[in-house]
Amino acid sequence: MPQQPHSDTPRQTDPEHEQTRDTLRVVGPLIVIAGLTFMVFGIPKTSFDSRGDFYEYLWCLPVGGLLVTLGTHICKFAFMGAVRRYMAHELAPVGKDAVNYMAEGTKDAVRDVAAAVGEGLRAGAPSQYVPVVRCHKCNSDNDLSANFVQRVRHSAGEDQAMCQLQRVE
């Protein structure tokens, strides 16, 4: 299977992603502008005219509000990557500084906890380590001074002299 040549740009799941994003970056602000235009026309007149058509363009307010909402949501998706990259570049140094500050401030406390854990483990351990020798056939533990298995676990036909001990530390 031939390998793909290495590229610095990440592979897109959707090959038309950039075209879709660019379209959304144009359509979103246009819908917001259209919505704001509807809202401006929908603001009721401050006084009645002779015909009394105070509410003539009032329907434009909710239509404009819906268009502004739709346009801002489209813009959110269109500019999401750029905004996230900006946020990452702004927040990464702050996070690094916070981690370094916490590491520097807690270094002594971590040492104290590690020392306490070590003391607890040493206190709960057996007072003396006893080395043993283990038979390579029957896997039985024997005294360090033994040359042969003290209690034979092999079949009756085997010679006990064949069961020599290996040193295990």
Keywords:
elongated, three-stranded antiparallel beta sheet, 3 helices, 53% helix, 2 domains, 6% strand
What's the quick description here?
By secondary structure, the protein is mainly alpha-helical. The protein has helices at residues 17-42, 60-78, 80-124, and strands spanning 132-135, 141-142, 165-168. It has 2 domains: 17-122, no CATH class; 132-151 and 160-168, no CATH class.
How large is the radius of gyration? 40 Å
Largest sheet: 3 strands, antiparallel
Low-pLDDT segments: none
Number of domains: 2
Q: Report helical residue fraction.
A: 40-55%
- Secondary-structure-based class equals mainly alpha
Distance between the termini: 49 Å
Instruction: Kindly report the spatial arrangement of strands forming the biggest sheet.
Output: 2-1-3
Based on DSSP secondary structure assignment, what is the total number of beta strands? Answer: 3
Describe the structure.
By secondary structure, this protein is mainly α. The protein has two domains: 17-122, no CATH class; 132-151 and 160-168, no CATH class. It is built from three helices and three strands; from the N terminus they run H-H-H-E-E-E. The protein has a three-stranded antiparallel sheet with strand order 2-1-3, with no helix packed on it. The protein is elongated, with a radius of gyration of 40 Å.
